[in-house]
Amino acid sequence: MEKIKQNPIVKKLGFNRIILCCVLVLMYALFAVFGDNFTGLPRILSALNYAYFLGFLSLGVTFVIATGGIDFSIGPVMFCAALISGYCLTSYGVPMALSLLISVLVGMMFGIFNGYLVAYWSVPPFIVSMASMNIAKGVASVFTKTQSVSWPQGVSEQGWFRNLVKVGDFPVGLVIFLVFAVICSIILNKTKAGRYILSLGSNKEAVRLSGVNIKKWEMLAYVICGTLVGIAAIFFVAAYTTVQPGYGDTYNNEAIAGCVMGGTSMAGGLASIGGTVIGVFIIALLQEGILALHFRKDYQLIITGIIVIVAVYADVVARRRKN
Question: To which H or E segment does residue 149 belong?
Answer without folding.
Answer: strand 149-150
